[in-house]
Amino acid sequence: MAYSEKVIDHYSNPRNIGTLNKDENNVGTGLVGAPECGDVMRLQIQVNEESGIIEDAKFKTFGCGSAIASSSLATEWLKGKTVQEAMEIDNMAIVEELALPPVKIHCSVLAEDAIKTAINDYRSKQGLEAIV
Amino acid sequence: MLSFPIYLDNNATTPMDPRVLESMLPYFNSKFGNAASRNHSFGWTAEEAVDYAREQVAKLINANPKEIIFTSGATEADNLAIKGVYEMYARKGNHIITVNTEHKAVLDSCKHIEKMGGEVTYLSPNEDGLINLADLEAAITPKTILISIMYGNNEIGVLQPIEEISDIARKHNVLFHTDATQAVGKVPVDVMAQNIDLMSFTAHKMYGPKGVGALYVRRKNPRVKVTSQLDGGGHERGMRSGTLNVPGIVGFGKACEISLNEMSEEAEKLSKMRDRLEAELTQIEESYVNGNINHRLPHVANISFKHVEGEGLMMGIKDLAVSSGSACTSASLEPSYVLKNLGLDDDLAHSSLRFGLGRYTTDEEIDFAIDHVKTAVHKLRDMSPLWEMFKEGIDLKSVEWQEH
Predict the structure, then answer these.
(1) pLDDT for residue A1
(2) Is A69 at the interface with chain B, CB within 8 A?
(3) What 8-state DSSP symbol labels residue A84?
């Protein structure tokens, strides 16, 4: 299967690999997927508590090239967005941007889940209810 | 000079040996006759060529040429062996014994038998891929007609104890079929000494052309028969109708002849290269060789690199053509059933690479492969959350994963 140029670019030069301190109050962590399924993504956001703007985003992913690219792209999109705006990120936008084939759509779904899980982790630390 | 990508997937298929190609060429044009044409020289020439190739093929496995039934490949040979025995020996019984790490051509033929009302026992191998002989013997019933166990495994290269298996089969008066696709031409196979009753193999895994293979069917002690699965002109002693693929068969014969002459030297060269590749790659922390390392084909290495996903890893070693046990490309996301049936955890099965060395593999290519894989594994571990958690001492089995 041929990968799109954008997938290859994100795979070869992944943006924002790394780890934020998950114990900080303004850091939200989303760990989704399972090793048995061949995909695990961990996506983290660091939020400015006053403005609600995501100042930093990091990821680490165990998975195929499309999974790595989806999470790398997600961190790029998250930075500079408010938490509310980030909630709007849809997996199909990732599919479109990376030109993912149908068998790889689950990678984008996983990335969207990771974003939402990270946001809700942040919200729960802030004493807010989870958004579905 | 290296040329990229480097081909290390010789279990999938091999390039044709130029000597094989040369032997085939006349049979596409000047000597194009149908080997079944009895009335003119075109047919006789083709028939002679087929007879000669049949001898070359038979010699490699120490069979009588009359015991070679040419087919379109090993898949067809497996189908013919299993379905053909099931139909031919229906009066004797309806039970077949096989192993759950067999090739799909065997497993799916067995599934077909079950649909037709037959019974199949699927043995599980030990962790190292070898079958347990006591399990095999215990599975035999008065209704058992066939044991089908592969010679050398396509994914992990493990060689089953063929002689011990055939001893058990003989003792209980059960036929023994082996899918020897990966083994013939790579290691010495002797159907007489090893008491094999039926054996599938194919040309394109031994530097011959695609689209031609054979089923060995024993003619004496016991005389084995299979019911034809293709109706037609009654070629191949009535067991496989269809105009013979003369150029393919000629090439198959030549490939067998070359293998017979060069096998021992080639096996020694390849096992040295394979051992070096494996020794270097297993220096990587948390890497594991899959399958028994003492009973193995000389040219195969299957290694899992923990906490790195196989397909992602393959993308990182794009200059190498290898195969992964991870099936992330398929909708099912199921990793290799062979590795799973060895009892490997799914995550290790997803993390595996299969290297298949071949006649044209060079030391320089192995050097490159070692460096390339090491670099890619380290790069991917740097971005693997599992590797980070493992390094922090977190037991990954204790984590509640959100499966999809």
Answers:
(1) 60
(2) no
(3) H
